[in-house]
Amino acid sequence: MQAAFYEKTGAARSVLTVAAMPVQIPAAGEVRVKLATSGVNPSDVKMRGGLRGGDLPWPRIVPHSDGAGVIDAVGDGVPAGRIGERVWVWNACWGRPYGTAAEYVCLPSNQAVPLPADVSFAAGACFGIPALTAWHAVHMDGGCAGKEVLVTGAAGAVGHYAVQFAKAAGAHVIATVSTDDKAAIAGAAGADEIVFYRREDVADRVLALTDGAGVARVIEVDLAANLPAALGALRADGDIVAYGSGALDIQVPFLPSVLKNICYRFFIVYHLAPADRARAVAGLTRALEAGLLRHHLGPAFPLHDIVAAHEAVEAGAIGNVVVTLQD
Ligand SMILES: NC(=O)c1ccc[n+]([C@@H]2O[C@H](COP(=O)([O-])OP(=O)(O)OC[C@H]3O[C@@H](n4cnc5c(N)ncnc54)[C@H](OP(=O)(O)O)[C@@H]3O)[C@@H](O)[C@H]2O)c1
Fold first, then answer.
1. First-to-final CA distance of the chain
2. Domain limits of the chain?
3. Which of 3, 68, 229, 290 sits a CA distance of 20 to 30 A from 100?
């Protein structure tokens, strides 16, 4: 099969190679997926770039955790009836060397989730990281039903799903964006109010939009940049659910945090507890089956252009960047 891989970290065009690799045989408990698409997330790009450390845990890494395709083989213990099933996958390249930037991937059967018939393989490449992150951010710790919620970066891959899940849960959603185009994306996802974070004072606008009360939850894409605004926008006993940060170290203003009883919640989708993941997968599946979700697809690239796909993510592409593996 054709696969993309790297054997050291560095710039995409220095370290990514596309070449033939053997097709794996699924081990006991595994399925093999003939992939149609592979989703490229900021995390994949950061890992390849060495942001999480230059030493590789394996000599060769086939990147990308997300993707979608059709099961074409199963290992011992997996019902043969799964062969032919359309699926999307999660954590394909987390704690494992071989992800979805390849024509086939083998992984544990529960990491291949049925993809409803009317959902495209391109959309299915957005679920493992963006959709599950958004679902968990909205529903964790009692969720957002009936609450005012601020979703920052609402036109991003995660933010766009977070707006939709929060609306579906019955929240009133205030969304931050940088441009008119992104305002249109967040509005189409269902955001009730739009704040242009680069030219408006976010905390002042949120307070004005909530009669001075503030929001109950901030779903935060960049905690390092936005922490003061988030603290200003939150009501007492509110929480900041931070899934992203533009800087690795953050100074937390103690006084406004303690005076408002603020709860800080950090999580990484790779490490969702099994019960939380099952809840998120079930919630996402219900939304897909009900046809409730808009997907936010960005540019698509064939596997041999994987360097361009990584560079598009680094350049801030709008929507999920997808690598296609079949015509
Ligand atoms: N913890 C987890 O499990 C988890 C899961 C998924 C993603 N992440 C992280 O979350 C971040 C976003 O991921 P993504 O896939 O959604 O990326 P994305 O599709 O590039 O979206 C990021 C969005 O945030 C906006 N943005 C950037 N800086 C901002 C700021 N300071 N304030 C408000 N908005 C800002 C961007 O647009 P503008 O720059 O035009 O505003 C863009 O629309 C990445 O750092 C990623 O690594 C973490």
1. 15
2. 2-126+295-324, 134-270
3. 290
